[in-house]
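Ex. 9. Protein: Sulfite oxidase.
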Amino acid sequence: MQPFNAEPPLSVLTTSYLTNEDIFYARNHGPVPIFPDPTTYNLIVTGYVPNSLSLSLEFLKSLPKYLVMATLQCAGNRRREMSDKRKIRGLSWGPGAIGTDFTTRKGKHVEFVSCDMCEEEDGLPYRASIPMLHATTPEADVLLVYEMNGKVLSRDHGYPIRAVVPGVIGARSVKWIETIIISKYECQFFFQQKDYKMFPPWIRWNNVNWSSQRALMDFPIQSVICEPGDGVVVKSGDVVDFYGYAVAGGGRGIERVDISINNGKKWLEAVRLPKLPIEAQRGYKDDLHRPHWAWTLWQLRFVKLETPCIVVVKAVDSSGNVQPASVDEIWNLRGVLNNCWHKIRINAPC
Ligand code: MTE
Ligand code: MO
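Predicted structure tokens for Sulfite oxidase:
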């Protein structure tokens, strides 16, 4: 059985800065659980703590509320371009496994245990961990979330409580959390140890040594052309507007977005649009606002094209990190962290 997974069309992804719940991508490794009654729900905190805690939803909501604007991105975003190169095990994602929202922080902890049942875990729930230091650094904005874009978190996205770990691959933002374990060790389960890791291109399923690589955390610098779509037909001499997103992991900013309309021979700089000030959102004026976890939307308008042509985008982050030109350099058997230059073909009418 295939769990519920959904990717929005790229053409709608960048039409607003915050991604509406109805188009927000969904990634599930097991069936979406039917969650217990919120009045009986308790979040258990256990492990290396003096006393285990059982926290009601009401109690969690009474804690100070934080808003963080963050982009969630699946490590498998753009996997399809990797599987086109060589067969890959994993969902075939285009470049739409990404979305931006703002959410609410309630605490900071280590191993998040869900209540969904995953085949890969032999029917046990999904779980993942982040380092204690990361979870407890206020600047890292790790959240226990009960609202998304000002609304109660939906079932698909983790109701009643999920983690959001900004700047980090989506896999660590565990949904439907039942238990938080403060542990001496990194999570020893499948998705931490045998899945979201990046291997060199020459490693295959018959010689993969899972313990040789660390569990992925930050996602790398990424950019995608969302409009127009791949394969559109344009007459030579016509003028086209380009729109897309760029996002850097680990809280880094987007320094530059470059576009080429002749497959990388010559480059133009795209216009980076201002990030949506969270103050513009109703009622949240006084809250914390750290925009660096969220994507940058960009545009380049009125570009005259000679068709057919290949249009390419690549971005540079605030640490000077760049994207690899070709998928060959970063191809890996799990198809994760594909951030090679994003290309679309523009066809001429026949
Ligand atoms: N949490 C649980 N409990 N089960 C899951 O399958 N998938 C993870 C993460 N949290 C998952 C989970 C992955 S791989 C991603 S990319 C994000 O959730 C996706 O979050 P979304 O569905 O809200 O977009
Ligand atoms: Mo993911």
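Check your answer against this statement. The chain has five helices and 19 strands.
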